Amino acid sequence: MSIKDDMVVQFNYTLRDEAGEVLETNEGLDPIAYLHGHDNMMPGVENAIAGREIGDKFSVTLPPEQTYGVRNEDAEQRVSVKHLQGAKVWKAGMRALINTDQGQRQVTIIKVGKFMATVDVNHPLAGRELTFDLDVVDARDATDEEIAHGHAHGVGGHHH
């Protein structure tokens, strides 16, 4: 069964940087589930999985435009220290979570004062060429409800 639009795809991944160092993996955890063809996955990863079969294991190296985006050097913001989540004491280089109108966002601390911090709002992996080792674990036709909602339901997907 070739992966195509309107299918729920489950996969495991290992993300590596330019030097081959592992940055993230979900090995040993539940697979990631997404609704193929509905902009629920990074474009480069979704394109790499399209047409594949259950059981396919492969690697793909992707440019920033197809993963976390190109780095914007002007993407600095000043935020109140009380909005930073993840630590009690902040130092330059640390990563924090902040709540935005679009949900939680990971930021990197550039400079921190007593009340305000300057943060880099680029994704920490923006601007980098990344390699994904992918293992297509399962795929099935999406339900009408999943298609209507625009996302996968169940393990590895969205829960209502």
From TrEMBL:
**Keyword hit for Hydrolase:** no
Key word Lipid metabolism present in the record?
no
Q: Which InterPro entries match?
A: PPIase_dom_sf, PPIase_FKBP_dom
Q: Which residues form a coiled coil?
A: none
Provide the alphabetized UniProt keywords: Chaperone, Cytoplasm, Isomerase, Rotamase
Instruction: Kindly give the Gene3D superfamilies that the UniProt entry links to this protein.
Output: 3.10.50.40
Recorded E.C. number(s)? 5.2.1.8
GO MF terms here are: isomerase activity
Q: Source organism's superkingdom?
A: Bacteria
Residue stretches making up the PPIase FKBP-type domain:
4-79
SUPFAM superfamilies (alphabetical): FKBP-like (SSF54534)
Q: Where in the cell is the protein located? A: Cytoplasm
So what does this thing catalyse? Answer: [protein]-peptidylproline (omega=180) = [protein]-peptidylproline (omega=0)
Function, as annotated, reads: Also involved in hydrogenase metallocenter assembly, probably by participating in the nickel insertion step. This function in hydrogenase biosynthesis requires chaperone activity and the presence of the metal-binding domain, but not PPIase activity.
Stated family: Belongs to the FKBP-type PPIase family.
What protein am I looking at?
Peptidyl-prolyl cis-trans isomerase
